[in-house]
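hey so u asked for the seq, here:
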Amino acid sequence: MNGVACIVLPTYNEAENVTALLPLIFRQAPRIPTHELHVIVVDDNSPDGTGDRVRSLMAEFSNLHLLTGEKRGLGEAYKRGLAFAVNELRADLVLEMDADFQHDPTLLPLFVMLTNSGFSLVIGSRFIAGGATPNFGWYRKLISTTGTWLVRLFGGLPALRDCTSGYRCIKSDVLRKCDLTGLATRGYSFQSSLLCELVRHGARVIEVPIVFQERKSGISKLSFRDQTEFVSNLLKLRRRRRASDC
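ran it, structure tokens below
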């Protein structure tokens, strides 16, 4: 019997993008023969009708699921989606992915293949050889690369090159060991906190180069508040690291 691979796709005002992206994701299913592919869209009651677009596609794709709720940040959306994937769908693999076409869905089979080869965490990395951020200005790239360096320093991580990437594949047996309740609830602070938890619980990590494209439509959700939360979250990472070393 095949396992279950479940993509958690947080959305807010992504109606146009999900309409085009979801069929492309499910088109990869035949290329993943070891797992049954599911997608959970976690929509924060988008006023642009994202949820309605997803509901209309659920008639076509039986493995498409929709969770709705109030807008409480990317981290909270991911927590709900990850819990549903692990507890309700009994997923063996959980994948994180953005809904704005900045993550190439044709890489999904490669991510799954690598977990089948013994890795428990696959990261789509923008900053290793072969990766690229063609639409990043110097300031955006500086923020991302400095952020990775700080996460490694405060979180005690190995020499990873992209600690804030939102394109990942995670084995559920490692994810179940992690306590997500106290993790940051907004943007890439959640991603860095989750990464530290996964590594702390023994995840075997590999980075895969990705080209981080410009979003197809809509606007970026990265805000100044996300950046300030990231800085304050560094102290939490250090406290968790020290607690685990005791």
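The chain is about 40% helix and 15% strand. The mean pLDDT is 89.
lmk if thats what u needed
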